[in-house]
Amino acid sequence: MITASHINKTYTSPDGAAFQALNDISFSIDQGEFVGIIGPSGAGKTTLLRTLNLFDPPTSGSIVIDGQEVTAPGYPVDRLRQKVGYVFQQCNLFPHLTLMGNITLALTKVQHLPESEARTRALDALNKVSLAEKASAFPSALSGGQQQRAAIARTLALQPKILLLDEPTSALDPTMVSEITGVMRLLAKEGLTMILVTHKMRLARDLAQRILFLDRGSLIEDCPANRIFQQPENPVVRAYIQRIRTLEFNVTSRQFDFYDMMSQIRQFCIRQAIPEKMDPITHIVEEMLLLLGNYHSPVHIEVTHSELDGVAKVVIVHQGESVSPLERPDADELAVMIIRGMSSHIDTDTTPDGIRLTFSI
Predict the structure, then answer these.
(1) Is the pLDDT of residue 295 over 70?
(2) The pTM of the whole model exceeds 0.85
(3) What is 2-238's CATH topology?
């Protein structure tokens, strides 16, 4: 369905300096494949996606889509963009039009469909994203997740053979991400060829069949998704995929700002798109501090989240202690019960610094 050969993209600044955003990239994508493009910020992911429908034509190289070289001189761009749909990070819906108006606009003005046929096709597209009942609503009346689903419906109504998605969940509250994930999963089952640019490793792992990994404008890995996430061989890829985000606190007295710490933990969970783990993490931290009782010895607290496997952990080190507070005879039974109930696994280690407890969530 897509063959990209030796794609290069160079930008030139007003002062004449050249920057190569894409460097000799080649790959092929079969019909019905769901391919994820991942890599660090500035790697060229969005630039590559934009070259595929000539929003940003490559400086050199060729792109063949559905048997036709779209980079050939004179190839009609309008014909290409009816085959290749593009979903942006921002929805870009016209605020003065209803959802029906937003979707039928391109159908009547670009594809020149009769109004009745355009409305039928628009309604079918809205049905696919479960928004048919919102056809007469204006974008301002919708949630962020609904707006992004409407943007996907607008693209689907054009009946593209390929769908390009540029960080479609990046501007959404984590609770709305599942809405878009469900739509993409449904479209994948229907056999639509899709390419997804994302920073969210769990999203790429759960949806993509194959991964292209870009770094500094070069394609350094092209392999099945399960292999790149389970056994990444390239050290650059391994370091990126296995990244673990950490939030740390040192509690040295009862005068520390407990509420500020809890606020930071909640914000951490939101940024990492794990709102469902917010309550277990905060409860474990709170109950553990209750069990420790006094802070004559410092208490070190870490909250971590692995983007690869989605596991969150609370690590607590109480200096100068050698017995787990969960095992003390005088431990508060309710606090112990809450902590054990909130954890999927608990590891206890004695270190030179004290007792170290790791709670997996």
Answers:
(1) no
(2) no
(3) Rossmann fold (3.40.50)
